[in-house]
Amino acid sequence: MHKKQRLSDKPDLIIVIGVIIVILALIITGLKHATSPEPLSGSVSPSIFSSARAMSTVRQIAQKPHPTGTSENEKVRNYLVAELKALGLEPHIQSALGINKSDQIGSVGIVHNVVVRIPGRVSGKALLLVAHYDSTHAGPGASDDGASVAAILETLRALKTLPALQNDVIGIFTDGEEAGLLGAEAFVAEHTWAKHIGLVLNFEYRGNRGAYSGST
């Protein structure tokens, strides 16, 4: 009788081992997908997104605080224009009066957006990539929003070297975000390209901690 019981227990043991193997395989697969890829160096092809090149951009624009209306803000703007031109693009600066009436106090100021466009194969609505290049007075803005600016710049670098997409891609580096989304307001209110937008991807960071910190 004991021999029969041992034989009947064998299939149950095999099932348990099989389940454990499947669970372990799923855990390993999940961890593999959750692991960030190795950052690529700045020497890789311009058609490939390079974390090293993007990080170099962050270091350039986040050396000092550069809030709207300051000389440091102008330096960052000039750097972005120069980088875009080096890619063979034709950026322009939209200088306008940004007005935000959404809060009780309201905010207003002169802003200088950096705007660029990569033509697609057909006419139609464009994809808009947005990040702001100004920072607060208290910090250099590496995370908010320098990392996003660098990511978009590196993306535009890759797109410029690849075959044209179906639709246009518009990139805008807005000014005056920290003062109340002034650059975005000015673009929507005054720029002719705003009417051509079909989809917006806005890249923004909430600081360098779990809670929002205005000092990033």
Mean pLDDT: 86
Helix content: 40-55%
- The number of helical segments is 5
For the record, what CATH class of the largest domain applies? Answer: Alpha Beta
Give the terminus-to-terminus CA distance: 74 Å
What's the CATH H-level homologous superfamily of the largest domain? Zn peptidases
Order of helices and strands: HHHEEEHEHE
For the record, the count of structural domains works out to 2
**Biggest beta sheet attributes:** 5 strands, mixed
Would you give the CATH topology of the largest domain? Answer: Aminopeptidase
Notes on the protein architecture:
With about 220 residues, the chain is α/β, with parallel strands linked by helices. It has two domains: about 1-35; about 50-200, Aminopeptidase. About 40% of the residues lie in helices and about 20% in strands. It has five helices and five strands. It has a five-stranded mixed sheet. Strand 3 (about 125-130), helix 4 (about 140-160) and strand 4 (about 170-175) form a beta-alpha-beta unit. The longest helix has about 35 residues, at about 1-35.
